[in-house]
Amino acid sequence: MTGRAADGTAVPPAAAAPSRAEGVALGEPTAPGSAVYTVVLKSDDTGHSWSGTEKIAFTNPGKAAITEFWIRLWGNGDAGCGGVPPERMTDLVGGRIAETTQNCTAYRIELDTPLASGAQGEVSFTLAIDVPVRRDRFGVNGVDTYLGNALAVLAVKDENGWELPPYVDFGESYYSLTADYDVTLDHPAALQVPSSGTVAGETPTGDRVSTHIVANKVRDFSWSAGAYHHDTVVTAAGVTVDAYWPNSESDSNCRELMRYAASALDSYGERFGAYPYPRFTIVFDEFGSAFDGMEYPNYVLASAYRGAVAHEVAHQWWFGLVGDDQYRHPWLDEAFAEYSAEQFEGGGSPAHGCDWVAADERMDVSMDVFEKAGDPLYHDAVYHEGTCMLYDLERTIGRTAMDQLLRGLVSQYEYGVVRPADVRALAASVSGQDLTAFWQRWRNTAG
Ligand SMILES: [Zn+2]
To answer: Using one digit for the tens of pLDDT, what is the confidence trace for 336-352?
Structure first.
């Protein structure tokens, strides 16, 4: 995310259980694995409301039978359960909703039949989405509709048990494993649907179009609907960049930023490891005080300026490929994304001051601490101090070791989940240095 505080058809489907980094003690993976989401949704004439079916197929990669699991519906995060929630999951087949918590963003599903070790199962349901009118990643912004984290996704069970964090509006609570998505969106022909993944086909019927999208090995799928301007460019490395923007944005600026995004993709690819998907989509729009940018796999929202673009593109590696628990460890993806962006923009030193704004401020705390402390402290600790820390790490271990760390994180954890301890261990390994005092100085020691 960029705050304002202050188809993968060329990507092979996930063949095994969701990638979990080797050597990371995540415990028995009793959560459903190898998820395949098949979604068919039809919009109203405005693109504000959608309804249809979602099917989640999965395997049981653990040794014990699975009898239940959790699904997240993040679109209810702001509105909660009162009245009619913006997102409703009904008519379940294969299981039943046994419990609802976290403001109607978390649903415990009891399977009709226990799923034995190694077996394949599925649940399906009707999904209805009424996007609220508000400038947000899940909101109707003017005439354009943004459906960030709108699909129902499996929650993650790791060494901490089921991770069911609450929604936070100034950062991210999202934590999901890579999966394959097959999504068909039936929408008015006058609306375009920029999204994660790659368009596999478009079928016009009268004044509507059915757009079939495939996104493999991604940890979420998001889209928007609007009468956007559109342009496209292919990067030198061969990635198609699709850019969209509403009437309110400048054509020339958005086209320049589209090329800037393409340049960032190739630059990060050279430094961290190639962007492995065939398409990257960026939507330029103005989200007011809500945010300046928001990252999703293969697809980002960004205010139309270079800093937001550089930051959100960097998230394709830090969060998109190298996943993390964004609620427990928000610095993991944000600090790396901002550090990457500032260096891509040519910064030889941090763009912000490196003085802590509070004596008890820490970088290694979770979003529940930052929610109590407030957005400004979150922004300072995670973005500013986080970037300062990584510049300092580069100075401490040298540019060569820093590049080895970044490439190593991608090669070892892409499509998986990284932990703070993994970063510290790899930094020590590539540098041959004891960095204990370094992490203590940056108030970043928690696992
Ligand atoms: Zn960010």
So the answer is: 999 999 999 999 999 99
3-state DSSP assignment of residue 8: helix
Identity of the residue numbered 74: W
User: How many angstroms separate the alpha carbon of residue 125 from the centre of ligand 1?
Assistant: 32
Amino acid letter, residue 358: A
Q: What domain range is 253 assigned to?
A: 8-316
DSSP annotation string for 55-89:
EEEEE--SSSPEEEEEEE-GGGTTTTTSSS-SEEE
Spatial contact of 254 and 241, defined as CB atoms under 8 Å apart:
no
* CATH number, domain containing residue 70: 2.60.40.1730
User: What is the distance in A from the centroid of ligand 1 to the CA of 313?
Assistant: 9
Provide the β-strand partners of residue 218.
179
Average pLDDT over residues 208-228: 98
Q: Is residue 1 part of a domain?
A: no
Residues with CB under 5 A from ligand 1 (ion): 1, 334, 337
- Are the C-beta atoms of 175 and 156 separated by less than 8 Å? yes
How far does residue 294's CA lie from ligand 1's centre (Å)?
7
Q: Do 182 and 37 fall within a single domain? A: yes
| pTM as predicted | 0.94
Q: Do 104 and 195 belong to one domain?
A: yes
Look at residue 221 and tell me if it is in a domain: yes
Q: Count how many domains the chain has.
A: 2
